[in-house]
Amino acid sequence: MATAEQIIGTWFLIITYAAIIIFIVVKGSIKTKSFKDYAVGNINFSPVSVGLSLAASMTSAATFVINPGFIANYGISGFISFGLVFPLGSMISLVVLTKSFQKYGQTIKALTLAQWIGKRYDSKGYSLLMAFLSLLLITFIVLIVVALTKVLSKSLNINEIYVLASIVIFVFGYMMFGGANSMVYTNTVQAIIMIVVAVILLTSGYQHFSQGISTFFDNLTEIDPDLTKITNVNSPLFRDIFEIFIAQFIIGIAVVCQPHIITKSLLLKSGKDVNKFLIVSVAAEVLFFLVVLTGLYARLTFPDLTVNGIGLKNDGIVSAYVVQIFSDGKIAVAVGLLVILGLISAGMSTLEGLIQSVSSSITSDIIQPLFGHRLKNENSLITVNRVVISLLALISFIISYDQLINPKLSVGIFAQNGVYAFFSAAFIPILFGIFIKDVKLKAPLYATLTALFTHFSVYYIMPLFVSEFGFSFGVFTKYLVGDVRNPAIASSCAIVISTLVGLLIHFKEKNKSGKN
Fold it and tell me: Among residues 312, 318, 275, which one has the least CA distance to residue 295?
Protein backbone atom coordinates (compact mmCIF):
# COMPACT_ATOMS: atom_id res chain seq x y z
CA MET A 1 0.00 0.00 0.00
CA ALA A 2 1.24 3.47 -0.88
CA THR A 3 1.65 5.95 1.96
CA ALA A 4 -0.27 9.24 2.16
CA GLU A 5 2.87 11.11 1.08
CA GLN A 6 3.29 8.87 -1.95
CA ILE A 7 -0.34 9.28 -2.96
CA ILE A 8 -0.26 13.10 -2.72
CA GLY A 9 3.05 13.25 -4.54
CA THR A 10 1.82 10.93 -7.29
CA TRP A 11 -1.25 13.09 -7.85
CA PHE A 12 0.97 16.16 -8.13
CA LEU A 13 3.18 14.38 -10.67
CA ILE A 14 0.23 13.20 -12.74
CA ILE A 15 -1.36 16.66 -12.90
CA THR A 16 1.96 18.30 -13.81
CA TYR A 17 2.79 15.61 -16.37
CA ALA A 18 -0.66 15.85 -17.97
CA ALA A 19 -0.39 19.65 -18.20
CA ILE A 20 3.01 19.46 -19.94
CA ILE A 21 1.80 16.80 -22.39
CA ILE A 22 -1.33 18.77 -23.25
CA PHE A 23 0.76 21.92 -23.81
CA ILE A 24 3.07 20.06 -26.22
CA VAL A 25 0.13 18.42 -28.01
CA VAL A 26 -1.69 21.72 -28.50
CA LYS A 27 1.49 23.32 -29.82
CA GLY A 28 2.07 20.40 -32.22
CA SER A 29 -1.55 20.22 -33.38
CA ILE A 30 -1.43 23.86 -34.51
CA LYS A 31 1.20 22.83 -37.08
CA THR A 32 -0.74 19.74 -38.17
CA LYS A 33 -2.57 20.84 -41.31
CA SER A 34 -2.95 17.52 -43.11
CA PHE A 35 -3.03 13.78 -42.54
CA LYS A 36 0.57 13.56 -43.79
CA ASP A 37 1.56 16.01 -41.03
CA TYR A 38 -0.12 13.70 -38.49
CA ALA A 39 1.68 10.61 -39.82
CA VAL A 40 5.27 11.86 -40.34
CA GLY A 41 5.21 15.51 -39.24
CA ASN A 42 6.18 18.71 -41.03
CA ILE A 43 8.93 19.86 -38.65
CA ASN A 44 12.68 19.41 -39.14
CA PHE A 45 13.32 17.28 -36.07
CA SER A 46 16.87 16.95 -34.81
CA PRO A 47 18.37 13.42 -35.08
CA VAL A 48 18.94 13.48 -31.32
CA SER A 49 15.23 14.06 -30.65
CA VAL A 50 14.18 11.37 -33.12
CA GLY A 51 16.79 8.98 -31.67
CA LEU A 52 15.50 9.50 -28.15
CA SER A 53 11.95 9.15 -29.45
CA LEU A 54 12.83 5.80 -31.00
CA ALA A 55 14.56 4.59 -27.83
CA ALA A 56 11.53 5.55 -25.76
CA SER A 57 9.15 3.84 -28.20
CA MET A 58 11.21 0.68 -28.58
CA THR A 59 11.74 0.07 -24.86
CA SER A 60 8.30 0.44 -23.36
CA ALA A 61 6.43 -0.50 -20.24
CA ALA A 62 7.20 -4.10 -21.22
CA THR A 63 10.88 -3.42 -20.49
CA PHE A 64 10.36 -1.33 -17.36
CA VAL A 65 7.31 -3.01 -15.79
CA ILE A 66 6.35 -6.39 -17.29
CA ASN A 67 9.64 -8.13 -18.18
CA PRO A 68 11.31 -7.52 -14.78
CA GLY A 69 8.42 -9.54 -13.36
CA PHE A 70 9.51 -12.53 -15.43
CA ILE A 71 13.07 -12.10 -14.16
CA ALA A 72 11.78 -11.96 -10.57
CA ASN A 73 9.94 -15.23 -11.14
CA TYR A 74 12.58 -17.11 -13.13
CA GLY A 75 15.94 -15.47 -12.42
CA ILE A 76 19.19 -15.17 -14.37
CA SER A 77 17.89 -17.18 -17.33
CA GLY A 78 15.28 -14.47 -17.92
CA PHE A 79 17.84 -11.68 -17.59
CA ILE A 80 20.10 -13.30 -20.19
CA SER A 81 17.16 -13.70 -22.56
CA PHE A 82 15.43 -10.30 -22.13
CA GLY A 83 18.38 -8.19 -20.98
CA LEU A 84 21.25 -9.41 -23.19
CA VAL A 85 20.29 -11.67 -26.13
CA PHE A 86 17.13 -9.88 -27.27
CA PRO A 87 18.76 -6.39 -27.14
CA LEU A 88 21.81 -7.66 -29.08
CA GLY A 89 19.61 -8.93 -31.90
CA SER A 90 17.46 -5.81 -32.01
CA MET A 91 20.44 -3.40 -32.00
CA ILE A 92 22.15 -5.22 -34.88
CA SER A 93 18.92 -5.28 -36.86
CA LEU A 94 18.16 -1.62 -36.18
CA VAL A 95 21.54 -0.45 -37.46
CA VAL A 96 21.46 -2.71 -40.54
CA LEU A 97 17.87 -2.01 -41.63
CA THR A 98 17.33 1.65 -40.74
CA LYS A 99 19.56 3.37 -43.28
CA SER A 100 18.15 1.65 -46.34
CA PHE A 101 14.56 1.82 -45.10
CA GLN A 102 14.84 5.57 -44.48
CA LYS A 103 16.41 6.21 -47.87
CA TYR A 104 13.77 4.28 -49.79
CA GLY A 105 10.94 5.66 -47.63
CA GLN A 106 11.92 9.23 -48.43
CA THR A 107 12.15 8.40 -52.15
CA ILE A 108 8.65 6.93 -52.43
CA LYS A 109 7.09 9.27 -49.83
CA ALA A 110 5.71 6.46 -47.67
CA LEU A 111 3.72 7.46 -44.58
CA THR A 112 3.25 4.00 -43.06
CA LEU A 113 4.92 0.59 -43.08
CA ALA A 114 2.05 -0.89 -45.09
CA GLN A 115 2.48 1.87 -47.70
CA TRP A 116 6.22 1.23 -47.83
CA ILE A 117 5.63 -2.46 -48.56
CA GLY A 118 2.82 -1.76 -51.03
CA LYS A 119 4.85 0.74 -53.04
CA ARG A 120 8.03 -1.35 -52.88
CA TYR A 121 6.28 -4.31 -54.49
CA ASP A 122 3.78 -2.27 -56.50
CA SER A 123 0.85 -4.06 -54.89
CA LYS A 124 -2.15 -2.35 -53.30
CA GLY A 125 -3.39 -5.73 -52.12
CA TYR A 126 -0.15 -6.41 -50.21
CA SER A 127 -0.40 -2.98 -48.60
CA LEU A 128 -3.99 -3.72 -47.58
CA LEU A 129 -2.97 -7.10 -46.11
CA MET A 130 -0.20 -5.54 -44.00
CA ALA A 131 -2.58 -2.81 -42.83
CA PHE A 132 -5.07 -5.40 -41.60
CA LEU A 133 -2.25 -7.33 -39.92
CA SER A 134 -1.26 -4.16 -38.05
CA LEU A 135 -4.44 -4.70 -36.00
CA LEU A 136 -2.45 -7.42 -34.20
CA LEU A 137 -0.51 -4.58 -32.56
CA ILE A 138 -3.60 -3.79 -30.48
CA THR A 139 -2.30 -6.57 -28.22
CA PHE A 140 0.79 -4.43 -27.52
CA ILE A 141 -1.42 -1.42 -26.78
CA VAL A 142 -3.26 -3.58 -24.25
CA LEU A 143 0.03 -4.62 -22.60
CA ILE A 144 1.05 -1.00 -22.06
CA VAL A 145 -2.36 0.10 -20.83
CA VAL A 146 -2.42 -2.77 -18.33
CA ALA A 147 1.14 -2.01 -17.16
CA LEU A 148 0.31 1.69 -16.62
CA THR A 149 -2.86 0.70 -14.78
CA LYS A 150 -0.87 -1.55 -12.44
CA VAL A 151 1.66 1.19 -11.67
CA LEU A 152 -0.85 3.98 -11.04
CA SER A 153 -3.42 1.91 -9.13
CA LYS A 154 -0.73 0.80 -6.66
CA SER A 155 0.73 4.32 -6.39
CA LEU A 156 -2.67 5.93 -5.79
CA ASN A 157 -4.46 3.06 -3.98
CA ILE A 158 -7.31 3.33 -6.50
CA ASN A 159 -9.37 0.56 -8.11
CA GLU A 160 -7.70 -0.66 -11.30
CA ILE A 161 -10.82 -0.23 -13.45
CA TYR A 162 -11.09 3.51 -12.69
CA VAL A 163 -7.40 3.97 -13.48
CA LEU A 164 -7.78 1.97 -16.70
CA ALA A 165 -10.65 4.15 -17.92
CA SER A 166 -8.77 7.37 -17.08
CA ILE A 167 -5.62 6.28 -18.94
CA VAL A 168 -7.54 5.27 -22.07
CA ILE A 169 -9.58 8.50 -22.18
CA PHE A 170 -6.53 10.73 -21.59
CA VAL A 171 -3.97 9.14 -23.92
CA PHE A 172 -6.25 8.25 -26.81
CA GLY A 173 -7.92 11.64 -26.40
CA TYR A 174 -4.80 13.73 -26.87
CA MET A 175 -3.46 11.44 -29.61
CA MET A 176 -6.45 12.44 -31.76
CA PHE A 177 -4.86 15.84 -32.17
CA GLY A 178 -1.11 15.50 -31.63
CA GLY A 179 0.40 13.14 -34.18
CA ALA A 180 4.06 13.10 -35.17
CA ASN A 181 4.61 16.83 -34.62
CA SER A 182 3.95 16.55 -30.90
CA MET A 183 4.90 12.88 -30.40
CA VAL A 184 8.61 13.38 -31.10
CA TYR A 185 8.78 16.10 -28.44
CA THR A 186 6.71 14.20 -25.86
CA ASN A 187 8.83 11.10 -26.52
CA THR A 188 12.03 13.13 -26.07
CA VAL A 189 10.87 14.41 -22.68
CA GLN A 190 9.81 10.88 -21.73
CA ALA A 191 13.14 9.40 -22.85
CA ILE A 192 15.12 11.88 -20.72
CA ILE A 193 13.00 10.95 -17.69
CA MET A 194 13.46 7.25 -18.49
CA ILE A 195 17.27 7.64 -18.63
CA VAL A 196 17.30 9.14 -15.13
CA VAL A 197 14.90 6.51 -13.81
CA ALA A 198 16.82 3.65 -15.44
CA VAL A 199 19.94 4.72 -13.53
CA ILE A 200 17.93 4.95 -10.28
CA LEU A 201 16.39 1.50 -10.73
CA LEU A 202 19.69 -0.12 -11.68
CA THR A 203 21.39 1.34 -8.60
CA SER A 204 18.41 0.75 -6.27
CA GLY A 205 19.72 -2.69 -5.39
CA TYR A 206 23.28 -1.63 -4.60
CA GLN A 207 22.99 -2.99 -1.06
CA HIS A 208 22.62 -6.51 -2.43
CA PHE A 209 26.16 -6.25 -3.83
CA SER A 210 27.72 -4.84 -0.64
CA GLN A 211 29.33 -8.19 0.16
CA GLY A 212 30.26 -9.02 -3.42
CA ILE A 213 28.60 -10.50 -6.49
CA SER A 214 29.04 -14.05 -5.18
CA THR A 215 26.93 -13.20 -2.11
CA PHE A 216 24.29 -11.69 -4.41
CA PHE A 217 24.06 -15.00 -6.28
CA ASP A 218 24.17 -17.00 -3.04
CA ASN A 219 21.15 -15.07 -1.70
CA LEU A 220 19.21 -15.80 -4.88
CA THR A 221 20.20 -19.47 -4.75
CA GLU A 222 18.98 -19.69 -1.17
CA ILE A 223 15.54 -18.50 -2.30
CA ASP A 224 15.44 -20.87 -5.28
CA PRO A 225 18.43 -22.64 -6.89
CA ASP A 226 16.83 -22.25 -10.34
CA LEU A 227 17.13 -18.46 -10.06
CA THR A 228 20.88 -18.56 -10.67
CA LYS A 229 20.96 -21.18 -13.41
CA ILE A 230 21.48 -20.25 -17.06
CA THR A 231 18.39 -22.30 -17.92
CA ASN A 232 15.28 -22.65 -15.77
CA VAL A 233 13.47 -25.91 -16.53
CA ASN A 234 10.49 -24.82 -14.40
CA SER A 235 9.91 -21.73 -16.52
CA PRO A 236 7.56 -21.61 -19.53
CA LEU A 237 9.93 -19.19 -21.30
CA PHE A 238 13.56 -19.94 -20.40
CA ARG A 239 13.84 -23.73 -20.29
CA ASP A 240 16.80 -24.34 -22.59
CA ILE A 241 19.46 -22.81 -24.84
CA PHE A 242 17.10 -22.65 -27.80
CA GLU A 243 14.50 -20.57 -25.95
CA ILE A 244 16.98 -18.27 -24.24
CA PHE A 245 19.56 -17.72 -26.99
CA ILE A 246 18.48 -18.82 -30.46
CA ALA A 247 14.75 -18.02 -30.45
CA GLN A 248 15.22 -14.77 -28.56
CA PHE A 249 18.01 -13.58 -30.87
CA ILE A 250 15.82 -14.24 -33.91
CA ILE A 251 12.98 -12.33 -32.25
CA GLY A 252 15.35 -9.45 -31.48
CA ILE A 253 16.35 -9.20 -35.13
CA ALA A 254 12.74 -9.15 -36.35
CA VAL A 255 11.26 -6.91 -33.63
CA VAL A 256 12.49 -3.79 -35.46
CA CYS A 257 9.93 -4.56 -38.20
CA GLN A 258 7.11 -2.85 -36.32
CA PRO A 259 5.58 0.36 -37.70
CA HIS A 260 6.16 2.48 -34.58
CA ILE A 261 9.87 1.49 -34.65
CA ILE A 262 11.18 1.26 -38.19
CA THR A 263 9.10 4.17 -39.53
CA LYS A 264 10.72 6.53 -37.00
CA SER A 265 13.55 6.99 -39.51
CA LEU A 266 11.03 8.56 -41.92
CA LEU A 267 10.86 11.55 -39.54
CA LEU A 268 14.42 12.41 -40.53
CA LYS A 269 14.46 14.84 -43.42
CA SER A 270 18.04 14.04 -44.41
CA GLY A 271 19.98 10.81 -44.76
CA LYS A 272 22.97 12.58 -43.22
CA ASP A 273 21.21 12.51 -39.84
CA VAL A 274 20.85 8.72 -39.70
CA ASN A 275 24.23 7.97 -38.02
CA LYS A 276 23.67 10.42 -35.17
CA PHE A 277 20.09 9.15 -34.83
CA LEU A 278 21.34 5.55 -34.48
CA ILE A 279 24.11 6.38 -31.98
CA VAL A 280 21.67 8.18 -29.67
CA SER A 281 18.95 5.56 -29.92
CA VAL A 282 21.27 2.55 -29.43
CA ALA A 283 23.03 4.11 -26.43
CA ALA A 284 19.72 4.90 -24.72
CA GLU A 285 18.22 1.50 -25.54
CA VAL A 286 21.16 -0.42 -24.07
CA LEU A 287 20.59 1.38 -20.76
CA PHE A 288 16.83 0.81 -20.90
CA PHE A 289 17.08 -2.92 -21.63
CA LEU A 290 19.32 -3.44 -18.59
CA VAL A 291 16.48 -2.24 -16.34
CA VAL A 292 15.08 -5.80 -16.31
CA LEU A 293 17.82 -6.51 -13.74
CA THR A 294 15.45 -4.81 -11.27
CA GLY A 295 13.49 -8.05 -11.27
CA LEU A 296 16.29 -9.74 -9.31
CA TYR A 297 16.27 -6.92 -6.76
CA ALA A 298 12.52 -7.38 -6.42
CA ARG A 299 12.91 -11.11 -5.80
CA LEU A 300 15.44 -10.46 -3.03
CA THR A 301 13.03 -7.90 -1.55
CA PHE A 302 10.04 -10.27 -1.79
CA PRO A 303 11.60 -13.76 -1.52
CA ASP A 304 8.24 -15.55 -1.62
CA LEU A 305 6.72 -12.96 -3.99
CA THR A 306 4.11 -11.86 -1.49
CA VAL A 307 3.29 -8.57 0.26
CA ASN A 308 1.45 -8.78 3.58
CA GLY A 309 0.57 -12.37 2.81
CA ILE A 310 -0.93 -11.54 -0.59
CA GLY A 311 0.73 -13.07 -3.64
CA LEU A 312 2.20 -10.74 -6.26
CA LYS A 313 1.15 -11.26 -9.85
CA ASN A 314 3.90 -11.04 -12.47
CA ASP A 315 2.74 -7.66 -13.84
CA GLY A 316 2.52 -6.04 -10.41
CA ILE A 317 5.96 -6.99 -9.02
CA VAL A 318 7.87 -3.87 -10.15
CA SER A 319 5.12 -1.53 -8.93
CA ALA A 320 5.17 -3.22 -5.52
CA TYR A 321 8.98 -3.04 -5.43
CA VAL A 322 9.02 0.71 -6.14
CA VAL A 323 6.38 1.45 -3.51
CA GLN A 324 8.25 -0.70 -0.97
CA ILE A 325 11.80 0.56 -1.59
CA PHE A 326 11.06 4.27 -1.93
CA SER A 327 8.75 4.81 1.04
CA ASP A 328 11.10 5.48 3.97
CA GLY A 329 11.90 9.21 4.35
CA LYS A 330 11.08 12.29 2.29
CA ILE A 331 14.08 11.92 -0.03
CA ALA A 332 13.24 8.29 -0.71
CA VAL A 333 9.61 9.19 -1.40
CA ALA A 334 10.69 11.95 -3.80
CA VAL A 335 12.98 9.54 -5.65
CA GLY A 336 10.20 6.97 -5.70
CA LEU A 337 7.85 9.49 -7.28
CA LEU A 338 10.44 10.18 -9.97
CA VAL A 339 10.68 6.44 -10.62
CA ILE A 340 6.89 6.21 -10.94
CA LEU A 341 7.03 9.08 -13.43
CA GLY A 342 9.67 7.15 -15.37
CA LEU A 343 7.50 4.02 -15.45
CA ILE A 344 4.61 6.12 -16.72
CA SER A 345 6.86 7.69 -19.34
CA ALA A 346 8.07 4.27 -20.47
CA GLY A 347 4.50 3.26 -21.15
CA MET A 348 3.25 6.52 -22.63
CA SER A 349 6.10 6.83 -25.13
CA THR A 350 5.39 3.51 -26.84
CA LEU A 351 1.63 3.85 -26.44
CA GLU A 352 1.71 7.14 -28.34
CA GLY A 353 3.75 5.59 -31.15
CA LEU A 354 1.44 2.60 -31.44
CA ILE A 355 -1.73 4.68 -31.48
CA GLN A 356 -0.24 7.01 -34.09
CA SER A 357 1.10 4.24 -36.36
CA VAL A 358 -1.85 1.83 -36.11
CA SER A 359 -4.49 4.54 -36.57
CA SER A 360 -2.54 6.04 -39.49
CA SER A 361 -2.32 2.65 -41.19
CA ILE A 362 -6.02 1.91 -40.71
CA THR A 363 -6.97 5.34 -42.05
CA SER A 364 -4.58 5.63 -45.00
CA ASP A 365 -4.12 1.96 -45.93
CA ILE A 366 -7.59 0.49 -45.29
CA ILE A 367 -10.27 3.17 -45.19
CA GLN A 368 -8.85 5.52 -47.84
CA PRO A 369 -8.28 2.83 -50.51
CA LEU A 370 -11.65 1.18 -49.87
CA PHE A 371 -13.84 4.22 -49.18
CA GLY A 372 -11.72 7.14 -50.41
CA HIS A 373 -14.36 8.21 -52.92
CA ARG A 374 -16.60 9.22 -50.00
CA LEU A 375 -13.94 11.42 -48.38
CA LYS A 376 -14.35 14.93 -49.74
CA ASN A 377 -11.11 16.54 -48.56
CA GLU A 378 -8.10 16.36 -46.21
CA ASN A 379 -10.19 17.43 -43.23
CA SER A 380 -12.45 14.43 -43.78
CA LEU A 381 -9.42 12.14 -43.59
CA ILE A 382 -8.31 13.72 -40.30
CA THR A 383 -11.85 13.32 -38.92
CA VAL A 384 -11.90 9.66 -39.95
CA ASN A 385 -8.56 9.13 -38.21
CA ARG A 386 -10.00 10.55 -34.98
CA VAL A 387 -12.95 8.18 -35.23
CA VAL A 388 -10.51 5.31 -35.76
CA ILE A 389 -8.61 6.31 -32.61
CA SER A 390 -11.90 6.39 -30.66
CA LEU A 391 -12.68 2.83 -31.78
CA LEU A 392 -9.16 1.70 -30.89
CA ALA A 393 -9.69 3.19 -27.44
CA LEU A 394 -12.92 1.24 -26.93
CA ILE A 395 -11.42 -2.05 -28.13
CA SER A 396 -8.28 -1.53 -26.02
CA PHE A 397 -10.36 -0.82 -22.91
CA ILE A 398 -12.45 -3.97 -23.32
CA ILE A 399 -9.47 -6.27 -23.87
CA SER A 400 -7.40 -4.60 -21.12
CA TYR A 401 -10.28 -5.05 -18.68
CA ASP A 402 -10.34 -8.77 -19.48
CA GLN A 403 -6.55 -9.02 -19.00
CA LEU A 404 -6.83 -7.36 -15.58
CA ILE A 405 -9.66 -9.65 -14.49
CA ASN A 406 -8.48 -12.90 -16.11
CA PRO A 407 -4.68 -12.81 -16.51
CA LYS A 408 -2.83 -15.92 -17.71
CA LEU A 409 0.55 -15.48 -15.97
CA SER A 410 1.10 -12.11 -17.66
CA VAL A 411 -0.39 -9.76 -20.22
CA GLY A 412 3.10 -9.99 -21.73
CA ILE A 413 2.30 -13.45 -23.14
CA PHE A 414 -0.91 -12.15 -24.70
CA ALA A 415 0.89 -9.18 -26.27
CA GLN A 416 3.86 -11.20 -27.48
CA ASN A 417 1.58 -13.57 -29.35
CA GLY A 418 0.02 -10.73 -31.36
CA VAL A 419 3.10 -8.58 -31.87
CA TYR A 420 5.38 -11.49 -32.73
CA ALA A 421 2.89 -12.70 -35.34
CA PHE A 422 2.91 -9.26 -36.96
CA PHE A 423 6.64 -8.75 -37.26
CA SER A 424 7.13 -12.38 -38.32
CA ALA A 425 4.88 -11.56 -41.28
CA ALA A 426 6.57 -8.19 -41.95
CA PHE A 427 10.19 -9.35 -41.66
CA ILE A 428 10.77 -10.82 -45.13
CA PRO A 429 9.01 -8.09 -47.17
CA ILE A 430 11.15 -5.50 -45.39
CA LEU A 431 14.36 -7.53 -45.63
CA PHE A 432 13.90 -8.45 -49.29
CA GLY A 433 12.65 -4.96 -50.12
CA ILE A 434 15.83 -3.42 -48.77
CA PHE A 435 18.50 -5.87 -49.92
CA ILE A 436 17.17 -7.61 -53.06
CA LYS A 437 16.61 -5.25 -55.97
CA ASP A 438 14.98 -7.62 -58.47
CA VAL A 439 12.65 -9.47 -56.08
CA LYS A 440 9.18 -10.25 -57.41
CA LEU A 441 5.94 -9.93 -55.41
CA LYS A 442 5.40 -13.68 -55.08
CA ALA A 443 8.46 -14.33 -52.86
CA PRO A 444 7.72 -11.87 -50.00
CA LEU A 445 3.95 -12.39 -50.22
CA TYR A 446 4.22 -16.15 -49.87
CA ALA A 447 6.75 -15.66 -47.09
CA THR A 448 4.28 -13.44 -45.22
CA LEU A 449 1.48 -16.00 -45.58
CA THR A 450 3.86 -18.80 -44.53
CA ALA A 451 4.92 -16.84 -41.43
CA LEU A 452 1.31 -16.30 -40.34
CA PHE A 453 0.36 -19.94 -40.91
CA THR A 454 3.47 -21.23 -39.12
CA HIS A 455 3.16 -18.90 -36.12
CA PHE A 456 -0.46 -19.67 -35.35
CA SER A 457 -0.07 -23.37 -36.17
CA VAL A 458 2.80 -23.75 -33.71
CA TYR A 459 1.04 -21.72 -31.03
CA TYR A 460 -2.52 -23.05 -31.35
CA ILE A 461 -2.96 -26.03 -33.68
CA MET A 462 0.05 -28.23 -32.80
CA PRO A 463 -0.61 -27.97 -29.01
CA LEU A 464 -4.19 -29.07 -29.73
CA PHE A 465 -2.93 -32.20 -31.48
CA VAL A 466 -0.69 -32.93 -28.48
CA SER A 467 -3.34 -32.39 -25.79
CA GLU A 468 -6.39 -33.82 -27.58
CA PHE A 469 -4.96 -36.57 -29.79
CA GLY A 470 -1.72 -37.49 -28.02
CA PHE A 471 0.51 -36.56 -30.94
CA SER A 472 4.24 -36.29 -30.35
CA PHE A 473 6.56 -33.91 -32.20
CA GLY A 474 9.73 -35.33 -30.67
CA VAL A 475 11.93 -32.95 -28.68
CA PHE A 476 9.70 -30.08 -29.89
CA THR A 477 6.73 -31.41 -27.91
CA LYS A 478 7.84 -29.76 -24.66
CA TYR A 479 7.21 -26.33 -26.24
CA LEU A 480 3.62 -27.28 -27.03
CA VAL A 481 2.34 -28.29 -23.61
CA GLY A 482 1.12 -26.34 -20.60
CA ASP A 483 -1.36 -23.52 -20.05
CA VAL A 484 1.34 -20.91 -20.80
CA ARG A 485 3.35 -21.32 -24.00
CA ASN A 486 6.24 -19.24 -25.28
CA PRO A 487 5.28 -17.07 -28.31
CA ALA A 488 8.99 -16.74 -29.15
CA ILE A 489 9.02 -20.40 -30.18
CA ALA A 490 6.15 -19.94 -32.63
CA SER A 491 7.58 -16.68 -33.99
CA SER A 492 11.18 -17.86 -34.42
CA CYS A 493 9.94 -20.94 -36.30
CA ALA A 494 7.74 -18.70 -38.45
CA ILE A 495 10.63 -16.35 -39.27
CA VAL A 496 13.07 -19.16 -40.17
CA ILE A 497 10.58 -21.14 -42.29
CA SER A 498 9.18 -18.04 -44.07
CA THR A 499 12.74 -16.92 -44.86
CA LEU A 500 13.50 -20.28 -46.46
CA VAL A 501 10.23 -20.18 -48.41
CA GLY A 502 10.89 -16.61 -49.58
CA LEU A 503 14.43 -17.40 -50.73
CA LEU A 504 13.34 -20.61 -52.46
CA ILE A 505 10.61 -18.82 -54.43
CA HIS A 506 12.88 -15.86 -55.23
CA PHE A 507 15.64 -18.00 -56.72
CA LYS A 508 13.11 -20.20 -58.51
CA GLU A 509 11.52 -17.10 -60.11
CA LYS A 510 14.93 -15.69 -60.93
CA ASN A 511 16.03 -18.89 -62.66
CA LYS A 512 12.75 -19.01 -64.57
CA SER A 513 13.15 -15.43 -65.85
CA GLY A 514 16.82 -16.16 -66.69
CA LYS A 515 15.84 -19.06 -68.93
CA ASN A 516 13.31 -16.89 -70.69
Answer: 318
